[in-house]
Amino acid sequence: MPVEWAGSGPELLVTIDRGRGAGLRTQLEDQLRAAIRAGRLAAGEPLPSSRELARALSLSRGLVQDCYAQLQAEGYLTSRPGSATRVAAAAMPATGAPPRPPAPAEQFPVADFRHGVPDLSLVPRQDWAWAVREACRTMPDAAFDYGDPVGPVRLREVLASYAVRVRAASATAADLIVCTGTQQALGLVVGALAAAGVGTIAVEHPGSGRTLGPLAEAAGMTCVPVPVDGAGLDVTALRRTGARAVLVTPAHQWPTGVVLTGARRQELIAWAREHDGVVIEDDYDAEFRYDREPVGSLQGLAPDHVVSLGTVSKSLAPALRLGWVIAPGRLREPIAHRKWLADRGSPVVDQFALAVLIESGRYDRHLRRMRTEYAARRDTLVAALRRHAPHLPLTGLAAGFHAVLDLPAGADEQQLIARAAHRGVGLYGVAGSRPQLVLGFGNTSRREIEAGISAIADLLP
Ligand SMILES: Cc1ncc(COP(=O)(O)O)c(C=O)c1O
Fold this sequence. Notes:
Blueprint: E1 3-4, E2 15-16, H1 24-37, H2 50-57, H3 61-73, E3 77-78, E4 86-87, E5 111-112, H4 125-138, H5 153-167, E6 176-179, H6 182-195, E7 200-205, H7 209-218, E8 222-229, E9 232-233, H8 235-241, E10 245-248, H9 262-275, E11 278-282, H10 298-301, E12 306-311, E13 323-326, H11 329-343, H12 348-359, H13 362-388, E14 394-395, E15 402-406, H14 413-422, E16 425-426, E17 436-440, H15 446-456
Parallel strand pairs: 5-16, 7-8, 7-10, 10-11, 11-12
Antiparallel strand pairs: 1-2, 3-4, 6-13, 8-9, 12-13, 14-15, 15-17
Helix pairs in contact: 1-3, 2-3, 4-12, 5-12, 6-7, 6-11, 13-15
The structure holds pyridoxal-5'-phosphate.
């Protein structure tokens, strides 16, 4: 006999049918996920407490708590001690639909602190156009055929030697699979891991659960959250999950900005060796480091256990859709096979163009310029906040182009975001366990940073 939720809290169309084959937790999770995707549960909306929902549906409270924790790991829900679990601000809008495209800049005429995007007005258009022309001029006729699905050997050689030189990776062309960015790379790797019998994959929390969760679900895997502290991923907590794979961002943790410490790196690699585990290293932000010694990639420390993912989305532009995987031997063929199944390989002219750009030195020159520019923006942000909100800690500044602003416990992150939007300033929350803002400055000029912070100064708690 199906049991429906009919509590006094928010409207929720959830039905648990004990006669159905699917487990109770799966039923609840699937329905909440579907309601969020379809927009029936809107961003910011509170969910019933686990106690209330458990009582109404005749479930154990632990089951409801597990379900909420899972959806939190996947990025659908967010919760803070002492306040209701809510639908995350950035939860997926519709079944199977990609995340909504970024808000147009006009929505935030004063400043948009959106994260994850480089400066789109400084994309090296001339250099890229030159590189495409050079590629077309120099590519042999045969290169215009269907190519190797993992990418032309020329680009793989260039990327491998770049990774060895700049990231202290351990790689040759044979270890690389070129793809259309981290998003595709993750899908391919997760598929290969599922086929190899990995049933549980862990993800940093807060972290990339919103990206990894649906991919893991589609591959029949469970995705579990593991907390991040001031030293990076909590490896002791990882050990308790029973996961055989984990997704991490060691160079600049997404979103807290913490750099994984040397001791934690060693612990993580020891975990992988003991459990025949796989560490997926998302190296997305490694090009932009400021006031600390360069930290090499994890992959270089344990090439048999680390899959490293690279992308040009931050270094050049997301629109190029170019990335790569450096994979241990046992995963290479399964990943390559999935790449062939997906699209027979990424666009070849663009891949030759990237090789030309890197070989010519123009790629490094662009990175040097951007590093100087982003460092200046970071200084502007630090100075503006020191002036207007000196009591709020700003962290995660060692690399990349976002920082994290801690709000006092109990501050209403969502309300602050809404009020800032009214003043033409785009702010974004971490969606973690405490109120924090991620302040992106990749696509925000120094002038906009100044104007944006001063426009919201009196709103900061
Ligand atoms: C944590 C993280 N890694 C990597 C990427 C880059 O993804 P892609 O290469 O698919 O553009 C993003 C994009 O925002 C990200 O947030």
